[in-house]
Write a structure and sequence with these properties.
- The structure holds two protein chains of two kinds.
- Chain A is an alpha/beta fold.
- Helix content of chain A is 32%, strand content 16%.
- Chain A has eight helices and eight strands, in the order ββααβαβαβαβββααα.
- In chain A, a hairpin with a 4-residue loop joins β7 and β8.
- Chain A is globular, with a radius of gyration of 18 Å.
- In chain B, the strands form five sheets. Chain B has a five-stranded parallel β-sheet with strand order 5-4-3-6-7, sandwiched between helices. In chain B, strands 11-10-9-12 form a four-stranded parallel β-sheet.
- Chain B is globular and about 55 Å long.
- In chain B, 58% of the residues are buried.
- Classes of the chains: A alpha/beta, B alpha/beta.
- At the A-B interface, α4, α6, α7 and α8 of A face α2, α3, α5, β8 and α11 of B.
Chain lengths: 196, 463
């Protein structure tokens, strides 16, 4: 059982870069751990810290103006390597939702498997959201998975987002794919017998 | 009226979850040390075994050094990850080609080499370059560690079915244009996210004429335009390559397999969600100038000017050029470079070493260039020596290192220093990919060879 996903409102951390690849989310040299914990400390490591390990003040995660559990990113977030460590880093830092106009496929699956909800919005909604956060870093966004809606509370703009009903149910109930697959062992064996 | 992709995918669906993903049966599962430890730990926590251990094959490749592999790995964290894979493989009874094993190498090189990758298979690995195996007419794609755990636990994964795309490369290639150039050309036209959500079939005369290893290079890079995977229908080239390899079917089973494999092609009237045509004659030797593989151009072209970039992309474009130390509108031909890397699951096979060695034969490596030549596997290394390529390379001032992923992602000691330019035959030019601050220029083996000889970005056709 994992944590259940509930409706919430939060301020956002904006990252208006496009094509943020998983090597930026978590560089390869931090992939050497054998557990799922601790990756949040190195989220966006090389944008966040200089080579001596000092925080780079201009990077958004080091800017006290911004906080929250929603990351808002430019299009094609999570491209490149399949490393689930990227999703562990995003989750480990404390994000529950990533909002973008477009996600890479593998990152999207990995995020969902770690109770981080990728919310795809239109380019227009995204641009407006970046503006709202810039104008007021305390601007709130509400994410309602049950209704599949995201609301920019500063402007009242609301969009609905897609998620397949199976995954939605998993997130709402805190279920896990392996529990499901283990319950299907007979079907798997039957498939194997039919394909010899 | 089915596509090749539909035929293989549909044949492997165990259950279709209403409104949800497919439960897909997996024929072959590859594992390396970086993305598997948490999955094996998950099985241990649940108290379950690997469901079909004979279908999983492991090889450590990302962390391993490319010098002195007979000695213990110096970095204790890397060593721990490699040792954890050994421990997991032994405990759960899956096959391991560990460090020091004659079959050890990059997982995407050794799978095909040993006949583990076959047409019609579904193949997964916790690694995005699993798309390589699509070259055989397999549905092969990268997965996350939670999905690795699913495969170990049940030999299945839950996966939404992607859309289909066919990319035709029509006509004949020009001289000095390699499979890597085809792929970099396609990715630059498609952009780094242009095929996201799709599974791509490559077709057309230029693809059909490629060797098996060249096909692997093209399929390997599918993920760099966001595609879930890439594949090429199997044909005589495929069967000839597979025949006689250790795990390939033998005797009667072989004949039966081939007659099935011959059915694995898209039907004449198959409809793809998207179909794109390119002309092979438009492709020149290529390089990248930015920090994603879509930021590429012909080797004699100039970097786009900022007015050609759409508004939302301008910040990323400028940040990318600043990182690389290049200017919009700049021509890169003749630009000095510091390192050359030949290797990786993209270009670390015997044909890549043949191409590189033939090019540098009788010439001398430029003094300002450090060259790392890393075979993709011990099998490739053995063949290099049997063909005498090592002697040609040595005479030209090059030395071979030991197999592994090496400087492609610099998880071992093979890191390009900050600010240095590397012409690299690998697959990603992301910021810091080849070491913090490293500047990567992606290219094929011939452009890499030309750069190694002249010390500059050079069109191999002009050397």
């Amino acid at each position: 059982m994992k944590d259940k996903f509930v409706t919430f409102s939060s301020t956002c951390i904006p990252l208006p870069m496009e094509n943020v690849d998983t090597d930026q989310i978590i560089p390869a040299r931090f992939l050497k751990a054998t557990s799922r914990q601790g990756f949040g400390d190195n989220l966006f490591r090389d944008w966040r810290y200089d080579k001596d390990g000092n925080p780079i003040k201009s990077f958004v995660l080091n800017d006290p103006t911004y906080s929250g559990t929603i990351l808002v990113a430019g299009k094609n977030f999570g491209s490149g390597s399949s490393r689930e460590h990227a999703a562990w880093a995003v989750a480990g830092y404390g994000f529950k939702v990533v909002v973008s106009s477009f996600f890479a496929d593998i990152f999207k699956n990995n995020a969902l498997n770690n109770c981080v909800l990728p919310v795809v919005v239109s380019e227009k909604f995204l641009a407006s959201l970046f503006s709202s956060i810039k104008a007021n870093p305390k601007a709130l966004v509400t994410v309602n998975l049950e209704e599949q809606t995201i609301t920019n509370e500063a402007t009242g703009e609301q969009e609905s987002f897609d998620i397949n009903p199976y995954k939605k149910n998993c997130l709402l109930q805190g279920y896990d794919d392996i529990d499901f697959l283990l319950s299907k062992k007979d079907d798997i064996t039957a498939w194997e017998n039919n394909h010899k | 009226m089915n596509t090749l992709f539909d035929k293989i995918w549909d044949a492997h669906v165990v259950n279709l979850i209403p409104g949800g993903p497919s439960q897909l049966y997996i024929d072959r599962h590859y594992c390396h040390e970086v993305t598997s430890p948490q999955a094996f730990a998950g099985l241990r926590e649940r108290g379950i075994k690997v469901f079909r251990p004979e279908k999983t094959f492991c090889s450590p490749d990302h962390n391993i050094p490319t010098l002195n592999q007979d000695k213990p790995i110096q970095d204790p964290v890397s060593r721990n990850q490699v040792e954890t894979l050994t421990k997991n493989a032994n405990e759960f009874g899956v096959t391991l080609y560990g460090l020091g094993h004659p079959k050890n190498g990059i997982i995407h090189v050794i799978g095909p080499e040993n006949g583990l990758t076959l047409p019609g298979y579904t193949i997964v690995c916790g690694d995005s370059h699993t798309s390589t195996h699509g070259a055989f007419g397999a549905v092969a794609f990268g997965i996350g560690t939670s999905e690795v755990e699913m495969v170990l636990a049940s030999q299945c994964i839950l996966q939404p079915k992607p859309k289909t795309m066919r990319i035709n490369v029509n006509g004949k290639l020009k001289p000095f244009v390699t499979a890597k150039d085809i792929a970099l050309y396609i990715i630059s036209k498609m952009t780094t996210g242009g095929a996201t959500g799709y599974f791509v079939e490559y077709a057309g005369e230029a693809i059909r004429n490629l060797s098996m290893e060249e096909r692997m290079t093209v399929c390997n890079l599918s993920i760099e335009m966001g595609a879930r995977g890439g594949m090429i229908a199997p044909d005589e080239t495929t069967f000839e390559y597979v025949k006689g390899r250790e795990f390939a079917p033998k005797g009667e089973a072989w004949d039966k397999a081939v007659s099935y494999w011959r059915t694995l092609k898209s039907d004449e009237d198959a409809v793809f969600d998207k179909e794109i045509n390119f002309d092979a004659a438009d492709i020149n030797p290529r390089i990248t100038y930015g920090t994603n593989p879509g930021m590429g151009m012909g080797i004699e072209d100039t970097i786009p000017t900022i007015d050609r970039i759409d508004e939302a992309g301008k910040i990323s474009f400028q940040k990318s050029l600043d990182y690389m130390g290049f200017k919009a509108g700049q021509k890169l031909e003749g630009h000095p470079i510091d390192y050359v890397f030949l290797g990786s699951c993209t270009n670390g096979r015997i044909e890549d070493f043949r191409a590189f060695a033939n090019f540098v034969k009788g010439k001398k490596k430029a003094d300002n260039v450090t060259a790392w030549l890393v075979p993709g596997s011990w099998g490739v290394d053995k063949q290099i020596r049997e063909e005498g390529l090592d002697k040609i390379l040595n005479a030209a001032g090059f030395e071979l290192r030991q197999p592994g992923c090496s400087a492609c992602l610099a998880m071992n000691e093979d890191k390009i220093p900050a600010g240095k330019y590397a012409v690299s035959t690998s697959n990603r030019n992301f910021e810091g990919r080849q070491g913090p601050g490293s500047r990567t220029i992606l290219a094929g083996p011939l452009v890499a060879a030309a750069a190694a000889i002249t010390g500059k970005i050079t069109n191999p056709a002009n050397v």
